Amino acid sequence: MAEEKESTSIPLSQAENGGVDPEDPAKSPPSSPNSSTRKACCFVLQSWVSKKFMTGCVVLFPVAVTFFITWWFIQFVDGFFSPLYERLGIDIFGLGFITSLLFVFFVGVFVSSWMGAAVFSVGEWVIKRMPFVRHLYSASKQISAAISPDQNTTAFKEVAIIRHPRVGEYAFGFITSTVTLQRETEDEELCSVFVPTNHLYIGDIFLVNSKDIIRPNLSIREGIEIIVSGGMTMPQVISPQERFARQKERIPLNRMM
């Protein structure tokens, strides 16, 4: 009788769980359909929330960066003339910014005249005689001349795509000048292509045959935006200027037909 009682006795932990050992998966009760459905709903809801949150971050990030840079630029430009207005007892936010824009505009008008050009050339001559400042001035002038609407001789001429550094790889650059290489048989026309390696102020210069250069239908400003943005503003389709001109010629013909 004692042996029968010992064999039929159940541990206290199993008795509380209805006689089922929780450590034994074969004896554990199957999960109910409600718990499985609840877990699936929680997983779907978590995935949806995380996806929408990342979408919001992707949308708001460029807006926040643009707003921050614009606000910093307004405060920076406003700081040139705002101390002058504060001394006069005028405290209006944005007045210094508007004054700075008007000052830049009138400087452009003045420099466009012959008298302003003469004064500017004298100041430029003085700056170029300074030991360290002249290098900074020359580099910054080349960049500003590239996006200048006047298109002077120091500006970038065209956007160029050259095969570099290996076959099948291409590099963005800007045509700065042309040079004629004199050979014994015949002369070869080369183009000086500036390929930026660190934004716009540092790069390499390549002399490439004008026939081997691909000239895309991109303006100088679009090329600068592509370089500065690290290729993020690259258009999906790039066509050479010759093909782009042919497509423009075909459009009127198709309309006439």
From TrEMBL:
Segments crossing the lipid bilayer: 53-74, 94-127
Membrane keyword on record: yes
Region (Disordered): 1-37
InterPro entries per UniProt: COV1-like
Keywords assigned by UniProt, alphabetized: Membrane, Transmembrane, Transmembrane helix
UniProt keyword 4Fe-4S, yes or no: no
GO cellular component: Golgi apparatus
Pfam families: DUF502 (PF04367)
PANTHER family for this protein: COV-LIKE PROTEIN 1, PROTEIN LIKE COV 2 ISOFORM X1
Protein name in the entry: Protein LIKE COV 2
Originating species: Hibiscus syriacus
